[in-house]
Amino acid sequence: MEKQISCGEEDGSGERGLLHTWMGYSYSTTPERILLSRPVLQAALGARHGVLLVEGGQVYSFGELPWKQNQTSSVVTEPVLEAALSEQRVVFVAAGSAHSGVVTEDGGMHMWGENTHGQCGLSGLSVIPNPTPVGVLDPEATPPQTVKILEVACGDQHTLALSGKHEVWAWGSGCQLGLNTSTFPVWKPQKVEHLAGRHVLQVACGATHSLAVVCCLPPPQEPRKLPQDKCGQCHQMLYTMTDKEDHVIISDGHHCPVGVELDSGETTSAFEGSPDQSLRFKQGKSSPTEPVPSMSTQIPKSPTSIANPESTTPTESKPASEPQTEVPASSQEPVEPAIEHSEEPEAPPTNGEVCVEASETSISEPGSCRATGGKSSPYPDEQAVKAYLKRLCDHAQAEHTTKTPSTLHPAQLSSDCADCFTSDPLIPVAQSVTPMGSAFNNLVVSCASAVGERVASTYEALSLRKVIGYWVPGDRVEERLRQEEPMQGKKSSSLGDIREEEAELSRRLSLPGLLSQDNAEFELEESLESKAKTQVSPRLLRRTSRHRARAIPLTPGGIPEADAHLPPLQTEVWSWGHGQEGQLGHGDLLPRPQPVCVKSLNGKEVLRVAAGAHHSLALTAQSQVFSWGCNTSGQLGHMETPTTLPHLAKLSDGIRVWDIGAGQQHTLLLADGDCIQPILYYSGQQVKEVMEQTEEEEQTGEYTQQPVLLPFCMNLGYVSSVCAGGQRCAALTDCNVMGFIASLHELAAAVRKYYCKLSNISSLLLQPLLKLDSLSSALGLSSGGLLQNLIRRLGRLSQLTGQTSASLTSFLRRSRDIRGLVILDDAHLFLDTYSEYCSAVGDLLVMGGFQALVKPCHDVFGKGAEVVQKLSECSEEGLPLADVLAHLFYLPIKHLHEYGRLLLKLATCYEVSSVDYQKLQDASSKYESMALHLKRRRKEAEYTLHFWKSFPGKMTDSLRKPSRRLICESSNKALTLQNAGRFSVNWFMLFNDALVHAQGMVPYKNLFSTHHVFPLATLWVEPISEENTGIYGLKVTSPEESFTLLASSPAEKAKWLRSINQAVEQALSGLGHDGMPPSTGVTQRADPPISRTATYTFYKDSRLKEAVYEGRWVSGKPNGRGVVKWPDGRIYTGTFKNGLEDGFGDYVVPNKNLSSCDHYQGQWKDGKMHGFGTFRYASGEIYEGFFQDNMRHGHGMLRSGKLNSTSPSVFIGQWQNDKKSGYGVFDDITRGEKYMGMWLDDQRQGNGVVVTQFSLYYEGAFSNNKMMGNGLLLSEDDTTFEGEFSEDWTLNGKGVLTMPNGDYIEGSFSGVWGSGLKMSGSYYKPSLYDSDKEKTRAVKLGRLAVHSEEKWKAVFLECWNRLGCDSPGQGQTTTAWDNIAVALTANMRQQRDSPELLSRSQHKTLESLEFIPQHVGPVTLEVHHKIRRYLVKACDTPLHPLGRLVETLVSVYRMTYVGVGANRRLLPQAVNEIKSYLSRIFQLVRFLFPDLPEEGGSLADPPKEKGSSDPAGKQLESPKPGCVVSSSALLLPVLLPRLYPPLFTLYALEKEKEDDVYWECVLRLNKQPDLALLAFLGVQQKFWPVTVTVHGEKQEVLSSTKDACFASAVETLQQISTTFTPSDKLQVIQLTFEEITQEVLALLKQDFLWSMDDLFPVFLFVVLRARIRNLGSEVSLIEDLMDPCVQHGEHGIMFTTLKASYYQIQHEKIT
Prior knowledge:
Low-confidence stretches: 1-13, 223-227, 257-380, 384-562, 690-700, 1078-1083, 1502-1521
Mean pLDDT: 76
Radius of gyration: 51 Å
Shape: elongated
Number of helices: 41
Strand content: 15-25%
Helix content: 25-40%
C-alpha cells in the first residue's frame, strides 16, 4: 500500500469513499489522501489518532497508537487493520482523545485504547490494546438483558452510547457522564436516568462535556382534572366572577397575604445603572436562597420555538450541585414577573393595561430579532391566537372599555412599553415571557386551567393587539446584553437541595396562573421520579406542552404517514458536564452533573451536534450553525459575547451548512455554495506545518475571526461528510460517476435552499404581518380564515420540506441506495401537500386576499415593501404588490418542477431497463405533471379573480366563494336562452361547481335582477341535433328545470358542451376545484355518466320543496337508492324510480303531538306506499300488511297497544281504502272477546262468530258493529238461545231457549245475557221420544258463521297477484313462472347483500327452487313425486309466493284459533277452514302445473299392483294412494304440521269428556299383568306369547309378567302421537298390525289369515297397553281429514278397528 499521496495526483483506484486529511487553513495546506483498498464509509478523529470504517465492515486505525504493544513505534503512518474485529461487521466508529469504540451490525460494542478513567468500560486494565467487547446490560429488565447499541461517542475520559431504544448509557469519569454518582471511574455502562423515556437522536462528547439531540415530547394524553381554584397558601378563591348583563368579568385579583417581598438589595443589584426601578411582586413566596434573576439571556429566534413549547425543558430538573440560572422569575418563585421600568418613556398604558417586562428575555446574537437571517422571530405563533380570537377582536376592543382597572395589582406602573408584554388586566399575567410563544400560551392557558370551563369571556377580553404586540427591537437587545454581563456570576449563587426545591415547586405549582413553560415541562419529566403531588391541572400541562398544533402554527404537526421515514425536526439540545468554558450553552460557567436542556436552541430544529474539546456546535434544519463555548482560537466562527450561549456562526448569505466537525480548537463546516459541489469552511487555529511547536507558540498562533473557505475544497470532488479531532480535519469524498453523485448533491442542495426560502417567507413576511393589529380588520372575516388556512398549509409544506432536506442530508452522509429516498417512496404525500397548499393560495387569491394584504404590507414593510419584492424573486418590474404577493406564494410550484427535473437527471444515471430508472422516471413525471396541473389551477384562479373584479351587479357577494373557479362565461353573447323574452338579457357563467344563470332587462345591462345557481353534480347536458333545426343548441336538464341554450356557432357549442361536461365530471369525481389529479394519467371520459350520485335541495317541486335528496340520479330524476330529508323532519330512505319513491323504502314522519315518529318500512310505487309493508304509528299501533295508494289495502294485521297498555287488541284480515272491510278476526284482549266475521268500513257487518274467554259462543248477524238480527248463543254448559238480538249479548225478540237437559222455552225474550232475562212464552219438557229434535238443533252450529270459502280471500288474491293474475285462475302459467323466478332472484340478490336475513337451510332451499319441474305429456307418478317435492320446498321459504301464502295462512289460522279462539265449538269451522285451504291451494298448484289431474283424478301410469289383502300384509303399498290425485295427499304434509297445535287443541277440548272416560278405563285395566289382561279381553289362548325378548334375552311369560307381550306393536302404535297427517297416522296403524302379525306368525310357525274376531281382542290389548292419552282426538282428526279415496281400502278397515277399540274401551267398565 502506498503512503498518503497528495490529492492533486490522479488515482483511479477508488471512486467513492475517498478519505482526505489535513490541518489548519493556510493556502499552502494540501490534503493528504489516505489510501485504502476499499471505500471509506465513516471516519472518526481523536486527539492524535483516527479510526476508519470501510465497506465490508472492517476497521482501520492510524496516527499515534501508544496502546498497541507490539508496535515498534507508536506512530502509525498508514492505516492498520484492527484484526480483532475481522469476524465482526462494524457499522459505526468513534474516537475519543485516546480511546476508540465501534458498534457492530448486531448492536454489540467494542472498545480499546486508554482506560485509566474507565472510559473503555472494562475494569481492571489501564490500557486495552485491541478492540474488546463491552456488554451493556439493562439491570431493570428481569432477567437482565443485553442492550443493543446504535451509536457511540468518545470524549477525554468518558464514553456515551445510544441504545436501540434511543436511551443514553455512559461510563468513564467526570460529571460529564450525567449519572447520579460521585464515585469515579464508573467501569460499567449505566443508563443516564435523566434522559430515560426520551427519544434521543444523537450524542456527542467533548473533552469534558456531553451533548445530546432529543426529540420533543408529544403532548401528554392525560384525563382532564378540574383545575385548582384556591390559593395554595391562604386557601381563598383565586378567581372571582362578576356576572354582567352581556358578559362575565373573571377577576384574578386575589392577594395572598402570605406573599413575601423580595430582598431589595438583591433587586437593585440586578439592574445596575437604573436606580429608579422598583419591583413589585404579587402573591408569592420566595426562599431566600433563590434569587430572582430578572433577566437572562435567551431569546429564541425560530418560528418553532412556540410551536413546541414542550421543548423548553425544566431547569428545575437540575440536581443540587447545579446552579439555578436561567429560570424565569415566575417559574422560580410564584411571583408575577417583575414590572420593570426603563429610562425611555413611551406612551403610558391605557385602560389599565399592565406592562410586564419579560423577566427572562433571552438574547442570542444582537440583532437576531431583527428580520434578517433565516428564521429569526421572537414570536412565531401569533396566528395561533388569531385563529381563535379573530372574530372576537372587535368585540374585545369594545369590551375593553367596560373593564375597570380596579382589579389591578396596585403596582406603580411606569411608562415603558417598548418590550413589554401588554395584557388585559383581567388575565393573570403568568410566568416569564421567555420564549415568547409560551408567553401567550400560558397566559391564556393558565387562566383557562384555573377558571375551567368559564373561560370564554377571558378569550374575548384578549384583544389581538395585546397578545401579539410583543416585538423586541434590536437596539434594545444590545443594551440589554451590556446590562446582563455583570449578572452572570450573580445568578449562580443559589444551590439548594433538590428535594427542597421540588417540594417548593409543588407548593408553587398549586397556584394556577403561574405555571410557566418550565414548570410544565418539569412536571412532565419529574413527576415520575419525585412523585411530587403537584396540583397542576393536566389540561394546563397539556396546553403548555402542546405539540405543534395550534390554530395555525407556521410549522404544523408532523405528517403522520411520513413520520416513520422522515427525521423529526422538533428537537432539543441537552448538555451536561464541565462548563468552565461555557461549552454547555446555559449562559454561565457552571458544571451540570445531569443533562439540562439548552433553552435557547428550542425550536431551532437542531439536526446534529458536534463537540470539540471545549466548544460545541449545533446544525439546524435551516442549514445554520450555532456555536458556543471556548473561542480562544476563533473556533466558534463568530466574535460574539457571551460565548456561554449559542450564537450563529458568521457565514455570508446563501451559504447553507449541512455537516459539521469540531476538533481541539477548530471547527470544520461542509456547506452548499453557488455551485453544485459542496465547499468547506474552517474556523479556529492555524496549524503550522512544523509539528515541533512549543506550547507558547500554540497559544499565540494566528486564528480566524470567522469561518474561512478552504481553497482546496473544489479539488477534492464531492464531499459527503466531514469530521475533525485533535488538530486534524478529514473529509470523505466521492468521484462523480456518470453524474450520479452530482445529481444527488444537486437534489439535496436544492431542497435545503428551498427550505431556507420557506423559512424566510414565514419569518420575514408572515410573522411581521401577523403582528399588525389592523390585519384582521383589513382582511375581513372570510379572507382572514383563508389566510390562516394558507399559513397552516404553508407550515405543513415547510415542515415536509425541512424533513425531506434533513433526510436527504443524512442520505448523502450514509447510505446511497436510491430506494430509500423519501421523495420517491412518499411521492403521494408530497403531491397531496402541494395540491392542498395550492388550493389554499388560489382560494385566498380568488377572494381578493392578496389585494387586501397590500395595505398591511405597506404598513409593516414601508411603501416599497422591498422585503416582499426580494422574497418573491419576481423578475418583472413595476408589478402591483398584490401580484408580487401572489407570485411569492406560488413559488413552491416552481420547486415541483425542480423535483421533476432532478429526479429525471438521477434517472439518467441508470440503465433504462432497470427498476430504479423506472421508479425515478415515474416519480419525475408525477412531479412534473402535478406542477403543470397546479400552474393550470393558478391560471384558473387568476382568471376568476379578474372576472370578479369586472363583475357587475350585487350578486358578487352571494356567488363569490373561495373554492369557486370560473371556467367560462357568456358575456360575449356566445350563449343565449331559447325562447327568452325580447327585453330580457341572459348571462351564463360556468363555475367549477355550478352553472349560474343571471337575468336582467335590456336597459339595465349591468343590473341583473335575478340569478339562479344550478349545481353541476345534478346537471345533465346533451347536444341537440342540428340536422332538422339548423340551430346550435344544448339541452340542459336539472332536477326541476330544463331549458335549451343556443350557441352562436358550432365552435362555441362544442366549447360549452366540453366545458360543462368536464366540469360536471370533476364535480362528480369529488375533486372540486383541484381538478383531475395529474398523477392518474387516465384520459378523461368525454361525457359524464347519465347515472350518478349527488346531493340536491329542491326549491320548486310542491311535494319535495326544500327537501334535500342524496343518492342516485338518472337524467335529472332521482333513480336508485337515495335519501330525502324534508325540513319538517320527515325522512325517506330507499329506492326511487323516475323521481318517485319506488321499490323498498323506509319512511319516518315525526309526530309533534306524541313526540314520537310514524315509521313505515315497505314497498312503494309511484311515490306512494304500495305493496307489503310495516307501519309503526306514533301512537304505538303497528300495521303489517298491504298498502295501495298510501292506504291500508289488502290483507293486513293491526296490533293496537302492548299487552300492558290500555286497549291492546289485534285485528287480522282484509282492508279496503284504510278501513277494515271483508273477512277479519278481531281479538279484543281487554274484553276477552274474539270476533271472526265480516267487516265493512271499520265496523262489524254481516255474519260473524264471537267467542269469549268465559266460553260464551255467538254466531249470527251483525250490523253497525253490534249483534243485531238472527243469532245463536251457547254458554259453556250447553244452554242455547236461538233468536233475535238487538245489541251485543242483548236478546230482543222471538227465540228459543234450550236448557242443557233438553227442556226449552219458546217465546219473546229481552235483556242482557247473564243478567235477568225477561220472557214471555211456552216452556216445553220434551219426552224421550222427542229427543231427535234436540239433536237436530245442536247440528245447526256454524250455519250462521262465515263460510270457509269466504275467509281470507285477500290472502289468496294476493298470491294470485304475485303470480301475475288479476283474479284466481285468470292468467298465463308462463307469466306466473316468470314472476316466481323474478321474486326468487331478487331475494337471492338481497340475500347476497345481507346474508344474516336467511338461515343456511333456507338459502339451500332457495338454490334448489331455481329448477322448475319440467315434464312432457300427462303426469305420471314420478312427475307427481317431483311436483310434491317442489311444493314442499316452495312452501318452506317465504320468498316463494306459495311459501308466502302458506306462512300467511298459518299466521291467520293461529290468530283465529289460539287464545280465546281455542273454543271447542269452533272445531268444525277449524276443520272446514283447513279443507278450504287445501282446495284453494290445490287450485293454485293446478294453475302452475296445468297437466295435473283434478281432485280425485287418476295419474297417467297404469296403477301398480295393489297388494292382495292377505293378513300378512307384506306387500302393502305406501299409505299414499298410488294413482289418485288428491289435494290432501299433496298439501296436507306441508300444511298440517304447521297448523297442528291449534287444531289438535280444539280436538282435545271437543273430546275432553269421552277421553276422560277412556283414560280412566285404560289406567284401571293396565294394572293387570299381561296374561290376565289377555284372558280378560278374550284373546284366544293360541295367540298368547310363550316367550318374550327383553333386552335381547328370551324370557318366559309368567303370570306376573307385565308390559312384555306384543311390546314392539305397542311401541309402534305409540308413535301415532308423533305424526301429523292422517296418512302418517294410518301408516302407524298399519305398521302396528304388521308387528302383531309378525309375533303371531312366530308363535304359530305357520301361515294363517286373521279373522276380525281373532284380531280385534289382540289389537285391543295393544291399544290399551299403548296408553295413548288423547286417542279420541287422534281418531276424530283422522276421520275428519282422511283422504276420501282411502276410506274403503285396507287403511279404512284398520282405522275402523282402531275406532272400534276406542269405543270398546270407553264402555269396558260395564264388563
